């Protein structure tokens, strides 16, 4: 059996980070992913997909990813259900991330960031030539500043 999902999209808001009673970090964010085809009105529709991240990966994502940043998520689809405060059963489908890759450099004036994957097997982002989080991992980025500055003008 196979349960694997790979998505590329933009964060609709800053990631949320919280901790379980036992101290395990758990985070989440919504990824806006455009559909590949336009609808009958010629408009491209977007799906808003809930992503869940755990442990060190959740802490790194909460620190370095922000609203509007592009990310790739590799994980599995999970469904769960619970009773809400009104006693109604609610079913939820979400992606549990195994790895998240930061795909753009974000703003030059915000906190340091990385473009490396973070996964349970590799809980510290890979850095080229021993760079630390304080260094700019995009300093030698071949795209340089050609990436558009999306700022707070995101449509979601």
From TrEMBL:
Sequence ranges of Acidic residues compositional bias: 137-156
Feature: compositional bias, Polar residues? 112-131
Its Gene Ontology cellular component terms are: nucleoid
Q: Does the keyword DNA-binding apply?
A: yes
Q: Which GO terms describe its molecular function?
A: single-stranded DNA binding
Report any Pfam family annotated for this entry: SSB
Chain positions covered by the region annotation Disordered: 104-156
Q: Which InterPro entries match?
A: NA-bd_OB-fold, Primosome_PriB/ssb, ssDNA-bd
Keyword annotations for this protein, in alphabetical order, are:
DNA-binding
> GO:BP terms for this protein?
DNA replication
Q: Can you tell which superkingdom this protein's organism belongs to?
A: Bacteria
Which stretches are annotated as coiled coil?
none
UniProt subunit comment: Homotetramer.
Q: What is this protein called?
A: Single-stranded DNA-binding protein
């Amino acid at each position: 059996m196979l349960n694997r999902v790979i998505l590329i999209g933009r964060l609709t808001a800053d990631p949320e980070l919280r901790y379980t009673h036992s101290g395990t970090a758990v985070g989440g964010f919504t990824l806006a992913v455009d559909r590949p085809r336009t609808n009958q009105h010629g408009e491209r529709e977007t799906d808003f997909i809930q992503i869940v991240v755990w442990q060190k990966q959740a802490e790194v994502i909460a620190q370095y990813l922000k609203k509007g940043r592009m990310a790739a998520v590799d994980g599995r689809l999970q469904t769960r259900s619970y009773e809400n405060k009104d006693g109604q059963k609610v079913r939820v489908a979400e992606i549990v991330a195994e790895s998240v890759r930061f795909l753009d450099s974000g703003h030059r004036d915000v906190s340091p960031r990385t473009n490396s994957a973070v996964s349970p097997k590799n809980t510290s982002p890979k850095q080229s030539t021993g760079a630390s989080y304080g260094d700019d991992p995009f300093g030698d980025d071949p795209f340089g500043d050609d990436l558009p500055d999306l700022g707070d003008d995101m449509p979601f």
